[in-house]
Design a protein that fits this description.
Blueprint: E1 2-6, E2 17-22, E3 35-40, E4 48-62, H1 68-73, H2 80-91, E5 99-110
Parallel strand pairs: 1-3
Antiparallel strand pairs: 2-5, 3-4, 4-5
Length: 113
C-alpha cells in the first residue's frame, strides 16, 4: 500500500471525505479506487500513521485554475493566493501553470487521532 503524506495536520483530515491537490507522480501516478495509507510527516522518524483512505475521484487541473472555494476547502482560509504561495514554496515551483491532481478521498480506517 502506498503512502500519501501530509506535512501539516489539516482540519480536512477530520472529515470523512476530503480533497487534496498533488503534483502528478512521474512513476505510477495516483489512481481512482486505490487504497492509500495516510501519514503525517512520512519521511520523519517521528512519522504518524493516521489511517487508510480510498481515492474516490481524481481530476486533472492546473494550479492557476484552482478556485478560492477549492483552496479554502483544502485548508487555506485566505484562498487561492495563499495556496499558490504554499505550493510554490513546498514544491519549489516557479510558475502557476503546473499540472495538478485533485484527489478526493474517503476514510476507510482511521487510526488513533
Amino acid at each position: 500500500m502506498r503512502i500519501l503524506g501530509f506535512s501539516k495536520r489539516w482540519d480536512k483530515l477530520n472529515q470523512n471525505e476530503f480533497t487534496t491537490f498533488r503534483v502528478p507522480r512521474k512513476y505510477r501516478d495516483w489512481e481512482r479506487g486505490e487504497v492509500v495509507q495516510i501519514v503525517y510527516h512520512p519521511r520523519s522518524k517521528d512519522h504518524e500513521k493516521l489511517g487508510e483512505a480510498r481515492i474516490i475521484e481524481k481530476t486533472g487541473t492546473i494550479l492557476s485554475s484552482v478556485t478560492n472555494e477549492e483552496a479554502t476547502i483544502d485548508g487555506f482560509p485566505l484562498g487561492k493566493v495563499e495556496m499558490w504561495r504554499w505550493m510554490c514554496k513546498s514544491h519549489n515551483i516557479s510558475h502557476l501553470n503546473i499540472p495538478l491532481n485533485k484527489l478526493t478521498l474517503y476514510w476507510i480506517k482511521k487510526g488513533n487521532r
